[in-house]
Amino acid sequence: MACKLVTLFFFVNLLMQIPKVRATVPAIIVFGDSTVDPGNNNQVSTVLKSNFEPYGRDYYGGQPTGRFSNGRIATDFISEALRIKPAIPAYLDPKYDIEDFATGVSFASAGTGYDNATSDVLSVIPFWKELEYYKEYQNKLRKHLGKDEANQRFSESLHLISIGTNDFLENYYILPTRSSEYSVDEYQSFLIGIASNFIRELYKLGARKVVIGGLPPMGCLPLERTTNMFFGSDCINEYNDVAKDFNKKLQGAVTELKQELGGIHLVMSSPYDKLMEMIRNPSHFGFEDAETACCGTGFFEMSYLCDNMNPFTCSDANKYVFWDAFHPTEKTNAILADYVVKTTLAKFR
After folding, report:
1. Which family does it belong to (predicted)?
2. Which of 68, 179, 232, 304 is deepest in the core (most CB within 10 A)?
3. With contact defined as beta carbons under 8 Å apart, do 28 and 80 qualify?
């Protein structure tokens, strides 16, 4: 009997220690575009929304939330893997308050980019405004937790940035303004300068754990394959090369910032190779289609073109790498998040 009591005491004591272990990363704070927007665009006057079916059909309760996916997005899975919570709420969602945001919040806006001109295209939240929301959030959290505890929370929280694809596919390669002002190389440097300054601002605001994502193989998105239809609907190699070059430059900027900003834990996470692996060898991951998307015909639909009135949407999104013509399925997001957690984020666990 005494032995059982000792064993019970041991496990109770162990359980009491778990919150202390989890406190390594008490919250995830997210900035970026549609890859990490859980619904901020629902509250913005823009045509770029996804708060309607079939978006979210595999989310909790089958409810559309504004996530550009059939279910959860990568940051949700990262939060769950770090034992924080299973989904990160949108800062502008009126259903949540500062108590919910204390353990994770996203300021991301679908359609935005580093470049202010990119956010203007579809009238979404500009990147600089996400930082202003973060400052507002900091003030609220200090009132909620107290100044000292909140400041410690900021330094220990994981600040995650995922953005950049729209600057090229929605802006540079579509509209004449930036392409007439900058060569591709110059535009990459322009964007990386913005990214670097953003991280410096986060650092000034107390952030010490920062992860910034590189670009995916954007030439292989179903929408881009469709524009390349007369050439066999292959990936657009030019766009993929731009993404790879950008990622190299971003990694260089990360290295410089780590030397400049004392005490910062800054890492770059690149989805490029893992997503390309899924695209090139889908069956290895249990997919059947990596070229077209689940929603609609799979060639060009996203946002309002991907709705319940479209009769062509697939019945099982798990067979597809892409949910709509621009965004991954929940299954793809889960695989990417698992990879990031086990590699880039291993030091934060």
Report:
1. Belongs to the 'GDSL' lipolytic enzyme family.
2. 68
3. no
